[in-house]
Amino acid sequence: MRTQEETLSFEDLLNESYARDEVLEGEIVSATVLAVNKDFISVDIGYKSEGLIQTSEFPSINGEIQVKVGDKVDVMVESREDDSGHLILSKEKADRIKVWDDISLACERDEIVEGTVTGRVKGGLQVDIGVRAFLPGSQVDLRPIRNLDKMIGERFQFKVIKFNKKRGNIVLSRRALLEKEREEKRGATLQHLAEGAVLEGVIKNMTDYGAFVDLGGVDGLLHVTDMSWGRIQNPAELFQVGSVVKVKILKYDPEHERVSLGIKQIQEDPWLRAQQEFPVGTKVSGKVVSLTDYGAFIELRPGIEGLIHVSEMSWTKRVKHPSKIVNIGDEVGAMVLDIDQENKRISFGMKQVEPNPWTQLEEKYPVGTVIRGQVRNLTDFGIFIGIEDGIDGLVHISDLSWTHRVKHPSEIFQKGDEVEAVVLNIDVENERFSLGIKQLHEDPWGRIPHVYPRGARVKGTVSKVTDFGAFIEIEPGIDGLCHVSEFAEEHVENPHDFVKPGDQVEVMIIDIDAEDRKIGLSMKAVKKAEKGFDYRAYLAQQNAPAIKTGKGGMGTLGDALKGLSVSGE
Q1: Are 359 and 428 in contact (CB under 8 A)?
Q2: Over pLDDT 70: what percentage of the chain?
Q3: Helices (H), 43-147
Q4: Residue 426: in which H helix or E strand, if any?
Q5: pLDDT tens column, 342-354
Q6: Cα distance between residue 566 and residue 569, in whole Å
Q7: What fold does the segment set 270-353 form as a domain?
Q8: Do residues 75 and 47 touch, judged by C-beta distance below 8 A?
Q9: pTM, rounded to two decimals
Q10: In 26, 65, 326, 353, which residue has its Cα 20 to 30 A from 35's Cα atom?
């Protein structure tokens, strides 16, 4: 059961001590500083003997005791008199008792206490509020804090949620105060929440897709796409937790209390004046911000980007991927080729800021110029010859030889061969350079009709046998067709049984077409001529009409000669 003294307040004990002639050990009394010495402070408590307090119990700054003669301090009597007749007093113990009383009173009245975080302990933090108190980790903040060490040394306000003086146990909560503060702010914030309103908030959390902003008890999401008109890879590029930002409310759902925020919407859209600022033909400079298979995106300023297509990167190089020309972060020069302000698209060209080498080719290599270069590539349709850096000329397969029937260029050339060719045509608009190799020499078909007139007898070599006849080479590269009907007077069932490749035969020229480069031959006519038939006269009379075969070969006079009597037969 408590004594009367235990139930008295601190002030009652103080007043009572002034009224008595004696003091009790453990009693708290008011004292007046009489002298300040190196080891002890001498004080008067209104008793017959002076009291002594160790100097170390008083605060000091730079070695100077922060107390002077005449100051009033509360002290506790530790012993009545020592051998020298002085009372032994303690300021620290009096302060500690007073703190416990103050905390007890604050707990009863649900008041706030202040303290400094002094260290980490199991489960939370230790706080000095005059005495040691415990702050659980769950009560530190509204959200869990990963690094509690950063709070050491900081001073905060707390609410006492558990108090046991007998056990010396005090538990604090900072979260309770923050929740109360948030609810107060929340009420005020809700009155101003409306779509289109501009408010200030604090970044409280960051994610890859945006940031959560505390508007005052109400959180809103600031999506990364609404932070800036420019390109943002990570919200941390612009903001940090704790940053104060001005935001616009884009959407507000009161039922679910969801708020969407934007910052760029407070600023002017940079595309509003883009067409006037960057008209077609303007030379600009920008930073490469993204690469795709088909081109590179460059940023002129935050929010304004455009595409350089791979086809617009070089006049001469065949760019397979933009990374062969530029890298992310590069500053590049370009020209505006097209701008669509409504759809926010700009097309740029890099090659347009440099002279077009194709426009100089016509002056440098007029038609008829003979050039020399290296075979850079072979295709089914021809060969490409290197003319200048990045500029190739094409020799079509039909322009490789006047006489040789080329099935594939690899029959004649290999990659890396040095060759000569003549310029046939330059198409600047479509960037095509046409060359010819056969044009370096005279077309033999210009003389063939004169060298081999109709009725002339020549010797040749069978080069190929088909079901409809045989091709016979009468000079290198010049073949004629002897139709199966012109093999012999008697019917030949199978040409392969009559002649074979490599056979030497004598034939007569019975038809010739220089334009289509075809010669009609006959072995049968040679035999008839030997029997006295005058083919020259007959061909002159008939003017050698060409008889086309169904297989694309050329017929001769086989059908016309049937039934004709030949002198000497």
Answers
A1: yes
A2: 86
A3: 91-108
A4: strand 418-427
A5: 888 999 999 888 8
A6: 6
A7: OB fold (Dihydrolipoamide Acetyltransferase, E2P) (2.40.50)
A8: no
A9: 0.44
A10: 26
Here the tokens at position 500 are 């074979």
29-72-170 Cα angle (round to 5): 60
- Domain map (residue ranges) of the chain: 4-96, 110-178, 192-266, 270-353, 358-440, 444-561
Torsion of CA 365, 367, 373, 379, to 10 degrees: 130
Contacts (Cβ under 8 Å, ≥6 apart) of 153: 116, 117
CATH superfamily of 444-561: Nucleic acid-binding proteins (2.40.50.140)
Tokens of 526: 């040679």
Name the token pair of 76.
Answer: 């506790």
Cα Rg of the chain (Å, integer): 54
Residue 50 structure tokens: 């002076």
Q: What are residue 155's DSSP bridge partners?
A: 116
The DSSP bridge pattern shows strands 304-309 and 345-349 to be parallel
* 532's tokens: 């006295």
**How far does the chain reach from its first CA to its final CA, in angstroms?**
165
Residue 188: predicted pLDDT: 65
Under DSSP, is residue 210 helix (H, G, I), strand (E, B) or coil?
A: strand
Tokens for 196? 């289109």
Buried b / exposed e along 274-300 (16+ C-beta atoms within 10 A): beebbeeeeebebbbbebeeebbbbbb
The Cα–Cα gap between 489 and 557 comes to 12
Per DSSP bridges, beta strands 382-388 and 391-396 are: antiparallel
Average pLDDT, integer, range 512-529: 89
Please give the torsion angle defined by the CA atoms of residues 322, 326, 330 and 336, in that order, rounded to the nearest 10 degrees.
-60
